[in-house]
Amino acid sequence: MPQFNFYSAIDQIGSERWNSLCQSDYPFLRYEYLHALEQSGSVSADTGWQPCHLVVSENERAIAIMPLYLKSHSYGEYVFDWSWADAYQRNGLDYYPKLVTAIPFTPCYGPRLMLHSDLSEPEQQSLTKDILSAIMQLASQYQATGWHGLFITETLRNKDQYPQLNYRLGTQYHWFNREYLCFDDFLDTFSSRKRKNLRKEREKITQHGIQHRIVSGAQLTDAMLKQFYQFYQITYLKRGRRGYLNEAFFHQLRDSLADQLHICFAYDPQHSHTEAVAGALFFQDSDTLYGRYWGALAEYDSLHFETCYYQGIEHCIRHQLQRFDPGAQGEHKIQRGFEPIETWSAHWLAHPGFQQAVQQFTEEEESLLRQEMATLRERLPFKKT
User: Fold this and answer.
1) What number does CATH give the domain 178-321?
2) What is residue 178's three-state secondary structure?
3) Fold observed for domain 3-171+341-378
4) What distance in Å separates the CA atoms of residue 49 and residue 105, rounded to the nearest whole number?
């Protein structure tokens, strides 16, 4: 019989056991990434992310692993349920704590449940049902209002198999590499006016004299990481608060996940030849580039687009990566060739009335969002075919 165990820290599970079920190099589910979040103190009960990771074992062999957190708020999730929390409050109920399967502060879709490759598809579906039942029991034990799986892939997205879950549609804007040989090759797919507008943006960076350099992994010095952390905090302070992550997190990632980490620095020779004026952090796996954080010391026209988007596109073309996920939100990405894509989350609320209300909400929201996505596709800059 499988054994279901929950752990309050990922280091209680260990890297070998956790990564043994990683069937891809998707960076955010790797032990090194999640451990850096916990080891640095960015993720903890004090920050509202209490780990309670699930490991399913059979004959002392791990056959399933899922990241899981007990949350006391909804910050850092990027699937917004503040209106649900408000509805609970208006009815005299607490919405928190809740259980969440997600990558903290990381709105990148990808695997959230790792299953052993020896399991057949029927065995995987049966085990997933048992896992959901175990999570519901844990929710009862913690008096949590429910469970939420964010930015999930197909493993958890099956309404016929898991009717207890509500599914919520979201959208992001991703770039896809259609065997481009260079950036101009990509631009040739644009209509004349849209191509001209984008070239003007890039020319502004040239006129400023700004130069970009991508530094990878172990080449990132402590001074570079300190400088990037300053950029990161500047971005959040403009929103009136500090960033979720501390400096130790970035240093630990450089040491443990170096081969998947890049920072694109922007240099203004009029400011300094050695100190960057802006930077953007990226992660990479075998086919995708992920844009995560950015910041700048001063305002430069079009610097954000160049550092966060165009340099990333050029990196993807150079290294033959198939997709570029530049981060959540931002309809302004449409005119720069990033296409609207579907993202999904799964939700279960223990309260039957609220579960039914959320189902109605997500169905109505999906209908409206599909209309919006169709309109957004009409605004893509590509030539009409």
Assistant:
1) 3.40.630.30
2) coil
3) Aminopeptidase (3.40.630)
4) 11
Rounded (10°) angle between helices 31-39 and 247-256: 150
pTM of the model: 0.95
Express each pLDDT in 317-342 by its tens digit. Answer: 999 999 999 998 888 999 999 999 99
Q: Are 320 and 185 in contact (CB under 8 A)?
A: no
333 touches 291 (CB < 8 A): no
pLDDT tens digits, residue range 47-85?
999 999 999 999 989 999 999 999 999 999 999 999 999
Rg of the Cα atoms in the chain: 22
> Boundaries of CATH 3.40.630.30 in the chain?
3-171+341-378, 178-321
Sign of CA dihedral 280, 285, 290, 292: negative
Give the residue among 284, 322, 291 at the shortest CA–CA distance from 305: 291
C-alpha angle 333/338/344, rounded to 5°?
100
